[in-house]
Amino acid sequence: MSRPGKTKFQIDLRRHLREHEVDDNLTHLICEIAEASKYIIHSLRTGELGVAGTSNLYGEQQLELDVLADRILRKRLDHSRVVANMMSEEMDEIIPVSPDCEGKYSVAFDPLDGSSLVDVNLAVGTIVSIFEGCDLLQPGRNQVAAMYILYGPRTTLVYSVGSGVHEFGMNSLMEYTLLHENITIEPRGSLYSPGGQRNLYTPGTEAFVTHLEERGVKLRYSGGFVPDINQVLLKGQGIFFYPHLKNLPQGKLRLLFEVSPMAFLIEQAGGAASNGHRRILDLQPDKIHGRSPVFIGCKEDVRLAEEFIRKLETDQTSDGGKKRQQKAAAS
Ligand code: AFP
User: Fold this and answer.
1) Which numbered atom of ligand 1 lies nearest the CA of 226?
2) From residue 142, how far is each of 130, 145, 250, 289 by CA, in Å?
3) Of 30, 126, 201, 272, which sits with the fewest C-beta atoms within 10 Å of its C-beta?
4) Is the dihedral of CA 196, 200, 206, 210 positive or negative?
5) pLDDT tens for residues 124-168?
6) CA of 242 to the centre of ligand 1 (A)
7) How is domain 191-330 classified at the CATH fold level?
């Protein structure tokens, strides 16, 4: 997009949304979430690392940072006038904000994903999924927007409304200005982020990791979903996975407010996101805190993971799998 007389660093988030002719209410919502992140940053940079229930030297009740982040976002969404329903990792149920759905949006968010990493000073983030109207339990392909804010050495914000995925950096005035527009991901990568314990991997995932290592792909894993996905996005290559484990057939990550928004963003960059068998964005959530295994990043590498799982796991139900098991047992 040509912007006579402007450098991209002078394009702030609201202007970018307007340039993409994003609906006014959705623009307002995304900007409100960006505003809320400034208070979350303040609590991260200055907050005590106390636990909920303790109080600081002024006798003020201390909150865990993720509870505090949840309150900051909930309050902002409550007063935005454009939210119908909301829910987060910290809430047990969907919170109704407005009875009418017309012109309003429903928001699912993880207010501070990776909060257990704060006390070892690793990067954490906020993940947001936005649907039009009142219904949150929809397949991820129906999202109208997804975004995350990454609280790292720099604070950055990444969003998509379905026309590309774009990154903004927070400047000295705490404004988000454009850094990268229409980010893309290569079909095949040279880094991988393997979540969960290796000894609990199923045969398909185990074989996939062995293939990656034999290919010389480098392991890069921080334990934070947002920084690990951001690395794949901004390096333009790589694959993250938190697979189904022997003791966790649905994996660890939540579909609605972790996996699905990231799948939306990565697909907008030309990547792919699968649960090992099916496209994440086609999954129909059946409960608000439902989990899903996830393989997300370079399209060819995601397809390869599916292939290993199909050959070494789903065949277990067919004769092929049983014959392989009998042969292995006989040898
Ligand atoms: P916390 O929010 O409990 O710190 O977990 C972070 C997370 O949900 C996600 O950000 C990481 O990708 C994943 O868990 C890491 O899980 P493992 O520590 O089991 O690898």
Assistant:
1) 10
2) 9, 9, 22, 18
3) 201
4) positive
5) 999 999 999 999 999 999 999 999 999 999 999 999 999 999 999
6) 9
7) D-Maltodextrin-Binding Protein; domain 2 (3.40.190)
CATH class of 7-181: alpha beta
If one residue of 89, 110, 193, 242 were mutated to test the ligand 1 pocket, choosing by the most ligand atoms within 8 A of its CB, it would be 242
pTM for the whole structure: 0.91
Say which amino acid occupies 64: E
Rounded average pLDDT over 105-124: 94
Query: How many other C-beta atoms can be found within 10 angstroms of the C-beta atom of residue 167?
Result: 18
d(C-alpha 178, C-alpha 75), whole Å: 27
48 three-class SS: coil
Q: Please report, for the chain, the start and end positions of each structural domain, with discontinuous segments joined by +.
A: 7-181, 191-330
CB of 195 within 6 A of ligand 1: the answer is: yes
Q: Which atom of ligand 1 is nearest to the CA of 253?
A: 8
- Give the ligand 1 atom nearest the CA of 224: 10
C-alpha 127/C-alpha 226 separation (Å) is 8
d(C-alpha 320, C-alpha 325), whole Å: 9
Residue with the two structure tokens 């579909």: 255
pLDDT at position 119 is 87
> Whose Cα sits closest to atom 16 in ligand 1?
223
Q: Give the whole-angstrom CA distance, residue 158 versus residue 148.
A: 5
Over the Cα atoms of the chain, what is R_g? 21
Q: How far apart are CA 217 and CA 213, in angstroms?
A: 6
Ligand 1 in reach of 225 Cβ (< 6 A): yes
